Amino acid sequence: MNTKHHAEFADLQWDDVRLFRAVQRLGSMRKVALDYGVVVNTIRRRIERTEERLGLTLVHRSANGIVLAEDGEKLLRIGEAMSQAAEWDLAASSKDVLVKPGELTIACTEGIGTLWLTPRMSRLQAVLPEMTIGLDFDYNLERDRTHEADIWLTYEQPTQADLIASKLATIHFAVYASQSYIQRHGIPSTMDSLKDHRVVEHVSPGVRSELLDFLIGTERPQGFIAMRTNSSLSQLWSVTRGVGIGALPTFVSEITSAAALVPLELRIRRELRLVYRSKAKPSPAILATVKWLRECFDRAIHPCFADTYIDPKTFRRDSSDTNIVNIFPDTFDEIN
Question: How confident is the model at residue 280 (pLDDT cuts 50, 70, 90)?
Answer without folding.
Answer: confident
